[in-house]
Amino acid sequence: MESIIADKKTFKYAYFPGCSLKSTSKEYDISAREVASSLGVILKEIPDWTCCGATPAHLTMHILSIGLPVKILLQVKEMGISEVVTCCAACFSRLKFANDIMSKDQLHREMVSRVLSKKYEGEVSVRHFLDVLVNEYGIESISKKIVKPLKGLKVACYYGCLLVRPPEVTKFDDSEDPHFMDDLINVTGAEAISWPYKTECCGASHSLSNTEIVLRLSNDILRFAKESGADVVAVACPMCQSNLDLRQGEIEKRYETKINLPVLYFTQLLGLALGAESKNLGLNMHLVNPFKILQEKGLL
Amino acid sequence: MKWFIDSNTLKSGFIKEVEKSSSQKIAHCYQCGKCSAGCPIAYEMEYTPNQIMRMIQLGMKDVVLASNTIWLCVSCITCTARCPREIDVAEVMDVLRRFAYRSGVYPIKGRNVPLFNKVFLRNIEKYGRLFEMSLIGTFNMLSGTPFKDTSLAPKMFLRHKINLLPEKVKGIKEIRGIFKKAGKVSRAKRQSLITIGELIHNYLKR
Q1: Which of B41, B161, B182 sits opposite A63 (nearest CB)?
Q2: What predicted TM-score, i.e. pTM, was given to this entire model?
Q3: DSSP classification of residue A281
Q4: Which of A16, A46, A60 to mutate to test the interface with B (most CBs of B within 10 A)?
Q5: Which residue in chain B is spatially nearest to A112 when comparing CA positions?
Q6: Can you give the C-alpha Rg of chain B in angstroms?
Q7: ipTM
Q8: Largest CB tally within 10 Å, which of A75, A130, A219, B16?
Q9: Shared domain check, B184 and B96
Q10: Number of domains present in the structure of chain A
Q11: Which of A75, A95, A128 is the last residue of a domain?
Q12: Cα dihedral across residues A54, A59, A62, A64: positive or negative
């Protein structure tokens, strides 16, 4: 009975890709759309969306860091859709933070209306794609659509920072030991391993400005994942992915070690299990090649 | 003692300034050190986050704003999530950076971050969406490392991970308006990306 209700519900969301998904992490955008279409989730891209301001805005000017996301939320409202989905953990954090503050703080509403010349009171709800899949579409409904279980693949689910912190904003299961990505990975037939660096920081926005720090923090994460027996790392954030994947070669050189650990988006793994072809998931777009391990496990 | 803290510093009211801008009760900090224990970058900081909190309580504005700590903080929010006194330490760091930004004085170690932020925001103001080619190119030139990451570039081109041209956005006028008005509301002056002195320093330090 429950499944009938779930099947009948339409899952329609405004979609905010964000800047990274149009450049350094195109494969995240491609695979998210692929997963959405095979599950029947409608992602309607916001026309002419603009940047959320990311980290530099909130480090520089508070009102700018609220104004830029509110502009996007207003566009969602104009589309007549009540929920916006994003795949980027940083966009999610900025949009959700701005939305929360606008829904309860009169002073902010006044300040932002002076900047945008429009009124907004937090009417839109902001969701991360992972949250929509696990908590809205449901693990059970997804399990019914798995056609190619990822048997034998050990996955270290890496959540990073902005997907789980601050817990008052993100409101997911447990900010110290989250498991909603693990739940999703387990339903694909792969095994989400237990490991200690799930929510440690990769260095994120220091990627260009303090690269040494990123190399060190990302090395720790990759090393722990490897030591815990992971075949691949699963991520839900384009910055985590580029620090762990694009800079992995540099990390190996800097710390004189061999890591060779593919870093995939959870959407790519889910897509594989849903029967999508690898070329529709952008698996060839990573620097650390995931094909070898996937072929070894008989998944490609 | 490392510092002599005179009574004028103690009475300076810096703590009030920070508390007002951050809506956080800095006075509640009892120095348990939880923020610094979980901070992934504490190893690189001049002063750890809990030391910064104490310095704010003592009114040491100049030392705090000139420290590299506030620029090395990566906004991972671990400190906030774990503070037993429920102080949003990450927000306090944001407020300190905004103070420092307004003063325009940056510590030599850590100056790359405000430079990166300015280059990033100018990029958004100009294009509406991040144009990474321009961001990376401009930042590397100005930070004195023009050849940084050049080995990554061809690999990224081959995988279509970097666009040669910026994406066009219709709402660009509105974006520029937001920047302008936000600056006005915050009474922030528009700064140059970098001074000649800083630029020379960035190239000579190599």
Answers
A1: B182
A2: 0.95
A3: T
A4: A60
A5: B182
A6: 19
A7: 0.94
A8: A130
A9: no
A10: 2
A11: A128
A12: negative
Tens of pLDDT along B115-135?
A: 999 999 999 999 999 999 999
Range(s) of the domain holding residue A177: 147-296
With CA atoms as reference, report the closest residue to A288 among A201, A206, A211, A218: A218
A56 interaction partners in chain B (CB closer than 8 Å): 116-118, 120-121
CATH number, domain containing residue A48: 1.20.1050.140
- For the record, the structure tokens of A118 come out as 């429009």
Q: Which residue of B has its CA nearest to A176?
A: B81
Q: What is the CA radius of gyration of chain A?
A: 19
Say whether A50 and B124 touch across the interface (CB within 8 A): yes
- How confident is the model over A212-256, as pLDDT tens digits? 999 999 999 999 999 999 999 999 999 999 999 999 999 999 999
Using 50, 70 and 90 to split pLDDT, how confident is the model at B205? confident
Contacting residues of A for B136, CB less than 8 Å apart: 208
Structural domain span for residue B130: 112-204
User: At which of B77, B103, B129 does a domain end?
Assistant: B103
Residues B79 and B145 in one domain: no
- Strand ranges of the sheet holding A232-235, from the earlier edge strand across to the other edge: A191-192, A154-158, A232-235, A263-265
User: Nearest chain B Cα to A56, which residue?
Assistant: B117
Q: Does B193 touch chain A (CB under 8 A)?
A: no
Q: What is the CATH number of the domain that holds A158?
A: 3.40.50.11810
**In chain A, whose CA is at the least distance from the CA of B87?**
A166
The count of domains in chain B is: 2
B83, A175 in Cβ contact below 8 A? no
The total number of residues written for chain B in this structure: 206
Residue B98 shares a structural domain with residue B129? no
* CATH code of the domain covering residue B90: 1.10.1060.10
